[in-house]
């Protein structure tokens, strides 16, 4: 019995010894996600982390990533909380830069991205610029034009200019009787404010008359003044550029005051489950362009995988999911090594690789990358119907 | 002159006054605790919203009539109030009032973060008291805000009755005026303080539910602005004055909305803070505060 036990022990030991070269031939590719995981926009961070982990699991299970020396690399995701605060975001990225992470994915908030990109080296190769040399690929922060701040900043966020241009063009075609637009904007939130500028410009470019606008703040709870003026204007379309909390507040006040526009248009970031949970009856008919909807097998599969990780697939988290596949391609093309002594070189390779990418594969179709490191992503229009988001139109199908 | 200017000014003022009832409800809790314990409980508004959240989350799993939401919110508020008392006041020496203040600030952030982590910050739909409005010519008055206003008045009346017509009220006033003498008379100061926190917690739960009903959704975004408004109302009304909190709540709500109409949303808060500043300089004891609150 004693002899038998020794034999089993020796066999297990031999097995482990033989297996060890195989284990050591796999290397961890460290990717640091960061975004809001506390505070009122926590859902953005929760969804992004779930999407990154879902994509990592999918890639790792499908054979991993081929590194520069032929070794198989497996993604390892660590997610940091920046609390949607610019100072915290900068501090988090400085901390990430001291780790072995080859790239950062984030942040959630445009205000954080704007400040954060400012601490990165502006022009690559500029010896006089002591800015941080660390590549960042953004998944959520959507304020237009931010990636141009630094050669090290990249984004995989939707191009809202193209989205609202297409949306208002389609609305003009589908509803030729609609002539006037009244706006509502959450003016103290960078993304909402900048997108409202886009909405206004695109509405006017497509021949709509802007009758006025009501401004409110991110944590406002009363909208009676703004909606009263909206009621007097009697617009055909009400376009609201605000996140779910105040979008719902404004929609409820519109219902109370009997404001019934023929069409409601919303902010890209409001095409989420939050709006449905907060005010589905009032949001019925609201039309929003979005970079994600479960309209094909890949998108449906991604949505299921993200849900399995405790998140929800939406315009932002879908971008995070896509990012990991972009990183896989860049790592394989650039021959990234993912070793402790190659971190600096790997980061440079990642930056260079991302700068050279002209097209990537997104969940809704091919994504074109621009020279100023932004993405032009396919999108669809979704609309609240019977208390759920449903696809209203796919512009690419025209 | 815009023909609608006068109408809109009055409507803005009226809307604000009615919405100010929510500030009054929060101010009542602040002022009651200050009046008795001479302490500021900064976590009060967050605890109130917490009570409303707890009720909605319970009702998401159990089907019950709408009024149960308000009842559960009051009970949850009372429970949270008791927890706040033990966490932030009971075990901290009265010799360190600043420690208590900081503990309540910590509790505010803690409750807010618990809400955020429980809901991922997603706003939760809250049932309205009524969707009816009263229309008088060009003017309209929200039925739900009128209900909040009446609730605030009922709460004030109830509190005044409790403080002046019951043994608990007598004990509470005794502790407020002379805690040492009250103790020598056989009053259990700790019990009275704990009961006070339960009562203000019950009131806070009702306030949280009323605010949820008025706004239509509950969000962690509500806690901090309500804390600020509650404190402003308490100072303007007079620290420790129950009727003062109600009147100041309505005044602050009305002026805030009028400022917004006249000067826009960007400048609105500047004028509200300016109002507070004027009171602190010219009338530091507020509208109804006395110069000497103690014997």
What does this structure look like?
The complex is a heterodimer of chains A (398) and B (295). Chain A is of the alpha/beta class. Chain A is built from 12 helices and 16 strands. In chain A, helix 3 (86-97) packs across helix 4 (110-117), helix 5 (160-174) packs across helix 6 (190-205) and helix 8 packs parallel to helix 9. Helix content of chain A is 44%, strand content 21%. In chain A, the strands form 4 sheets. In chain A, strands 2-3-1-4-5-6 form a 6-stranded mixed beta sheet, with helices on both faces. Chain A has 2 domains: 27-158 and 295-377, Rossmann fold; 160-290, 3-Layer(aba) Sandwich (Rossmann fold), CATH 3.40.50. In chain A, strand 13 and strand 14 (375-376) form a beta hairpin. Chain A starts with a helix and ends in a 5-residue tail after the last strand. Chain B has 11 helices and 4 strands. Chain B is mainly α. In chain B, the strands form 2 sheets. In chain B, strands 1-4 form a two-stranded antiparallel ribbon. Chain B has a two-stranded antiparallel sheet with strand order 2-3. Chain B has one domain (3-282): ABC transporter involved in vitamin B12 uptake, BtuC. The termini of chain B are far apart. Helices cover 75% and strands 4% of the residues of chain B. The radius of gyration of chain B is 19 Å and the shape is globular. In chain B, strand 2 and strand 3 form a beta hairpin. The A-B interface holds A 38-43, 46, 187, 215-222, 224-225, 228, 232, 244-245, 248-249, 252, 255-257, 273-274, 277-279 and B 4, 8, 11-12, 15-16, 19, 113, 116-117, 120-125, 131, 133, 140, 142, 211, 214-217, 219-222, 224-225, 257, 260-261, 264-266.
């Amino acid at each position: 019995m004693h002899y038998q036990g020794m034999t089993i022990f020796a066999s297990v030991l031999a097995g482990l010894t033989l297996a060890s070269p195989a284990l050591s031939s796999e290397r961890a590719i460290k990717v640091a996600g960061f975004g809001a995981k506390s505070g009122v926009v926590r859902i953005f961070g929760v969804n992004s982390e779930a999407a990154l982990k879902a994509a990592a699991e999918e890639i790792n299970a499908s054979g991993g990533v081929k590194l520069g020396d032929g070794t198989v690399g497996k993604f390892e995701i660590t997610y940091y909380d920046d609390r949607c605060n610019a100072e915290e975001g900068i501090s988090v990225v400085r901390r990430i830069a001291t780790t072995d992470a080859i790239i950062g994915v984030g942040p959630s908030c445009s205000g954080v991205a704007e400040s954060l990109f400012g601490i990165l080296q502006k022009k690559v190769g500029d010896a006089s610029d002591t800015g941080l040399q660390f590549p960042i690929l953004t998944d959520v922060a959507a304020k237009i034009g931010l990636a141009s701040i630094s050669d090290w900043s990249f984004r995989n966020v939707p191009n809202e200019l193209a989205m609202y241009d297409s949306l208002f063009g389609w609305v003009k075609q589908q509803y030729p009787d609609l002539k006037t637009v009244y706006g509502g904007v959450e003016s103290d939130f960078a993304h909402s404010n900048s997108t409202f500028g886009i909405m206004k410009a695109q509405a006017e470019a497509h021949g709509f008359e802007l009758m006025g606008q009501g401004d409110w703040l991110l944590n406002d709870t009363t909208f009676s003044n703004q909606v009263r003026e909206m009621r007097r204007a009697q617009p055909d379309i009400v376009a609201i550029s605000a996140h779910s909390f105040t979008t719902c507040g404004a929609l409820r006040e519109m219902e109370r005051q009997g404001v019934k526009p023929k069409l409601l248009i919303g902010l890209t970031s409001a095409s989420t489950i939050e709006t449905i949970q907060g005010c589905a009856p009032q949001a019925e008919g609201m039309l929003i362009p979005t970079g994600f909807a479960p309209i094909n097998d890949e998108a449906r599969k991604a949505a299921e995988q993200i849900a399995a990780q405790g998140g929800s697939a939406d315009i932002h988290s879908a971008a995070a999911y896509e990012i990991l596949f972009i990183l896989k391609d860049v790592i394989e093309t650039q021959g990234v090594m993912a070793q402790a002594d190659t971190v600096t070189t790997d980061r440079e390779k990642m930056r260079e690789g991302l700068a050279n990418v002209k097209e990537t594969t997104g969940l809704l179709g091919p994504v074109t990358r621009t020279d100023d490191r932004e993405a032009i992503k396919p999108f669809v229009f979704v609309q609240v119907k019977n208390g759920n988001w449903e696809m209203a139109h796919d512009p690419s199908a025209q | 002159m815009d023909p609608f200017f006068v109408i809109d000014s009055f409507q803005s003022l009226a809307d604000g006054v009615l919405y100010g009832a929510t500030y009054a409800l929060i101010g009542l809790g602040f002022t009651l605790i200050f009046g008795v314990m001479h302490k500021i409980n900064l976590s009060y508004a967050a605890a109130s919203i917490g009570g409303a959240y707890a009720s909605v989350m319970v009702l998401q799993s159990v089907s019950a009539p709408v009024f149960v939401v308000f009842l559960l919110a009051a009970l949850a508020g009372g429970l949270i109030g008791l927890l706040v008392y033990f966490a932030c006041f009971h075990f901290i020496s009265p010799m360190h009032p600043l420690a208590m203040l900081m503990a309540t600030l910590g509790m505010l952030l803690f409750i807010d973060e618990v809400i955020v982590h429980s809901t991922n910050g997603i706003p939760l739909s809250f049932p309205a008291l009524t969707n009816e409005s009263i229309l008088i010519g060009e003017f309209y008055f929200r039925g739900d805000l009128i209900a909040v206003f009446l609730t605030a008045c009922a709460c004030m009346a109830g509190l005044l009755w409790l403080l002046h017509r019951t043994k608990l009220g007598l004990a509470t006033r005794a502790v407020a005026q002379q805690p040492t003498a009250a103790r020598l008379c056989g009053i259990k100061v700790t019990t009275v303080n704990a009961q006070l926190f339960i009562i203000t917690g019950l009131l806070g739960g009702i306030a949280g539910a009323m605010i949820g009903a008025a706004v239509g959704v509950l969000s962690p975004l509500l806690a901090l602005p309500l804390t600020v408004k509650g404190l402003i109302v308490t100072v303007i009304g007079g620290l420790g004055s129950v009727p003062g909190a109600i009147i100041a709540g309505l005044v602050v709500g009305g002026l805030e909305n009028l400022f917004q109409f006249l000067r826009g949303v960007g400048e609105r808060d500047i004028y509200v803070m300016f109002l507070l500043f004027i009171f602190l300089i010219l009338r530091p004891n507020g509208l109804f505060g006395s110069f000497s609150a103690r014997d």
